[in-house]
Amino acid sequence: MALMITDECINCDVCEPECPNGAISAGEEIYVIDPNLCTECVGHYDEPQCQQVCPVDCIPLDPERKESHDELMDKYRVITAA
């Protein structure tokens, strides 16, 4: 699954630089995650780095974007051309 940022986001700016795929960016009101770039850090780390640094725990899995570990790894390979 891709991750998403909920409206509890406080715009603290700590998640964006942690994303190895550049999937997080400033939206109109809160940060947003591009689901086409989010691999939950599969291929880079064992755990999603944005979730690890978020002080308000507002980055859950997006229930509308279910992906298996293998699908996330395939997406990682495409993104990184590995």
From TrEMBL:
An example Gene Ontology CC term for this record: cytoplasm
GO-annotated molecular function: 4 iron, 4 sulfur cluster binding; metal ion binding
Keyword annotations: 4Fe-4S, Electron transport, Iron, Iron-sulfur, Metal-binding, Repeat, Transport
Keyword Transmembrane helix among UniProt keywords: no
All residue ranges annotated as the 4Fe-4S ferredoxin-type domain in the record: 1-29, 31-64
PROSITE patterns with a match to the protein in the record: 4FE4S_FER_1 (PS00198), 4FE4S_FER_2 (PS51379)
Name of the protein: 4Fe-4S dicluster domain-containing protein
Species of origin: Halomonas korlensis
Organism lineage string: Bacteria, Pseudomonadati, Pseudomonadota, Gammaproteobacteria, Oceanospirillales
